[in-house]
Write a structure and sequence with these properties.
Blueprint lengths: L2 H18 L4 H6 L11 E5 L4 E4 L8 E5 L5 E8 L2 E5 L5 E5 L3 E2 L3 E4 L7 E5 L8 E6 L3 E8 L2 E6 L2 E6 L3 E2 L9
Length: 176
């Protein structure tokens, strides 16, 4: 889909929000009442390797794009009935059906430059042994986070990374 078509679809989705009574992420975070009863915003991951992202929160809305990789982290920014508005690590937003999302936490490695690598350590200490070097865009399962460090694992790696290097975990968030 061309950028302008995608942008138009996203703008249409934004315009439709007022018609569906969906709260903004800022307002919803402070609200105790959400459809799911869970806080907004929050991170989740894609459950399937085929997830349709729609322009609005119904099957009548056009599919704006399709995710083809299970496990990608996304942030839920709003809810409407069984639909969740999500944002990905590149900032793209759209609506997906709730059953296509998982509470399993994952994260994407982020770097200032795409060709840089970040060290993965044996323990939550920069003086510990480096077990791997990860490139931007690598997706990892988040096992545990505390004190600005996260224990992550993926295909061929397992170790500790500084929390600021991850998209899919809030600053200073604790995950057990």
């Amino acid at each position: 889909m061309a950028f302008r078509q995608l942008f138009a679809s996203m703008m249409f989705a934004g315009a439709m929000l007022s018609g569906f009574g969906v709260e903004s992420a800022a307002n919803a975070k402070d609200s105790a009442l959400t459809t799911s009863g869970l806080p907004i915003p929050r991170y989740v991951s894609l459950k399937s390797d085929h997830v349709n992202v729609r322009a609005g929160p119904t099957k009548d809305n056009d599919v704006a794009w399709v995710y083809t990789k299970a496990g990608l982290p996304v942030e839920i920014t709003a809810e409407f009935e069984n639909w969740r508005r999500i944002r990905d690590s590149e900032g793209a937003e759209g609506w997906v059906y709730h059953s296509l999302l998982s509470g399993r936490r994952t994260a994407v490695i982020t770097m200032k430059a795409k060709d840089e690598f970040t060290p993965l350590y044996d323990s939550a200490d920069t003086k510990s042994a480096v077990t791997a070097r990860l490139q931007a865009g690598v997706v990892a399962q988040v096992k545990h986070c505390a004190a600005s460090w996260c224990h992550i694992a993926g295909n061929g790696f397992d170790g500790w990374i500084q929390q600021q290097r991850l998209w899919g975990v809030y600053a200073d968030e604790k995950i057990d």
